[in-house]
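Hey team,

Filing this mostly as a record. A colleague (T.K.) asked me to run one chain through the structure pipeline before their review meeting, and I want the input and output archived in the tracker in case anyone asks later how it was produced. No errors, nothing strange. Just documentation.

Input sequence:
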Amino acid sequence: MEKAIQVLNGLLVELFNDILNIEQTALKDGKFNDLSITEIHTIEAIGLYQPRTMSEVANDLDITVGTLTTAIRKLVKKGYVERKRGEEDRRIVQIQLTRKGKLAYRIHEKFHTDMIKYMVQDLQIQDQQLLIHSLEQLHQFLKEKYHLDKEGKGGK
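Output structure:
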C-alpha cells in the first residue's frame, strides 16, 4: 500500500506540472502566444455561446469584478473579447468572445479533449468506470478536506 501511495503521489504531481508546462509552452510557441494561462482560463470561463456578465465570470473564476475588469481590458485590446453595456441597465457589462477568442477557446479545449481521449482509448468500459470513480473519490476528499465548493474553489 505504501508503494502505491508513493507512485500515485508522484504521478499526480508530475501530471499536474506536465499539463501546466505543456499549456504554457503551447501558448508561448503557438498561434496565441500573446495569451497567458490566466487569460486562456478567463476565455474558458467566458464560454463560447452566451454573453455573460462580469459578475458571473468573476464569480466563476473566484476573483473580484475589479480584477476581472483589468483582465478583460487586456483581452479586449488583444481582440479576444468584446464588451457591451446592457441596454436596459447601462451599469451591467456583458462580455463575450470574439471570433479570435472562440478559436483560442476551441484550441485549448481540444488539448484537454485529446489528452482525455488518449488516456481512456485502451481502457475497457469497467476500467474507465473505475478511473472515473477513483477521480471522483479524490475530488470528494479534496472538497471535504479543504472546504471546496462545487467548482473546486476554497470556502470563504
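Quick notes for T.K.: The first strand starts at residue 52 and ends at 53. The helical segments are 2-29, 37-46, 54-61, 65-78, 99-120, 125-146.
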